[in-house]
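Chain A, query sequence.
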Amino acid sequence: MKLASAISPDELATFVIQARLALLDDESGRVEDDEPFFVADLGQVYRQHQRWTRNLPAVQPFYAVKCNPDLTLLRFLAELGTGFDCASIDELRRVRNLGVDPSRIVFANPCKAASALCTARDMGVTKTTFDNLDELNSIKKFMPNAQLFLRIYASDDDALIQFGDKFGASPEATTALLERAWDLGLEVVGVSFHVGTGATNHQSFVDAMERARAVFDQAARIGHHLQYLDIGGGFQDSGFERMASGIREAVKLYMPPEVRIIAEPGRFYARNAYTLVCKIISRRRQVCNDNSNPDMLYQNDGVYGNFMNVLIEHEIMCPSLVTPALSLTASRADSSREDGEHWYSIWGPTCDSVDCVTRKMRMDSEVKVGDWLMYKNMGAYTTATGTQFNGFGAQHPVIYINSESQTGDGGMMPLGTTESVIQYETRSGQPEIMPCST
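Chain A, predicted structure.
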């Protein structure tokens, strides 16, 4: 499958954004004309999946639903054949309601309520994780048919968020946990670890795999027959090939060939596929606009919404100004806009001064009230972590596109039951929005 050369994925997304904005009325006062929106490119998700299978062909991805639980994304990933990493009753229901077989789900939360265990059991989900003795007792009582993964400690000190402080049995605790599971008659089928979200150091995977092999040997001595290794998530887009190479070598070094390797990628699939478009709703101009005293822009989404990563992961936001499409220039061009360097801070809509998206950024022209800013790479831990603080929500409309819609033989990429997808026709050399046939 190849991307048609007439238009790039970024150009397609920009075209769709411009088309959407052309339909809005700045003077209407309607909520829908002031609402942020996403453009999600399922073609980018497909390319990431192909990239995964090229670099980690022996590792089955179980998408981490917590990263982005968008139903259209989940449905598309299900069609691609991924499994799913769920951590709550709601996530289990979202995936099962799509018709995903329970065998393709890992309930990867080591500490679960009784109601969660019963829900998973009743859905037919059997794979789940544990890292403490009390969890084993709960599993014995409420989910005795479970296929268990022992979650062991792992950490990448350079990860954006480390999980080792909260989850993972220490090396000193693993033998006792395996023995207790054996005494309870519970089936332990694998080992799992998670080095942290946004991991960058492939050596952390190597070290964790070495510890996992020691647990495999412990389990064999006790009588457990381990079949799986879950290497968790944390995979980033940048440097993925190098990370994958290190993982492949570690698997060869430490794991028997019959062990099935799975992983829990989230942001790797979702982050680059989503673009968020926000409207400037107010502006506060300073006496002197420079990089030490920037003008203040107020937009319709902020850190309590889809920009929580500014606080949690200290992500630096770099939006771009959406310019009108050429065909709309005559009606929407603003000849009074000042060109040249302008400095701005960007603030969210709530009444909290913490709600700052960026303290200082440079734009190549003036930004005015009514303008729209485009933020790329907004698919991971955005809507999933947003709040309703101050009455502002984080759930916004999503326009789905497919930049991978042309195959080498001229046919469309099959999308199964995926609905509301915009594809584009390239035979004329120009994009044309049209509904996707499903």
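The chain has twelve helices and 18 strands. The first strand starts at residue 37 and ends at 41.
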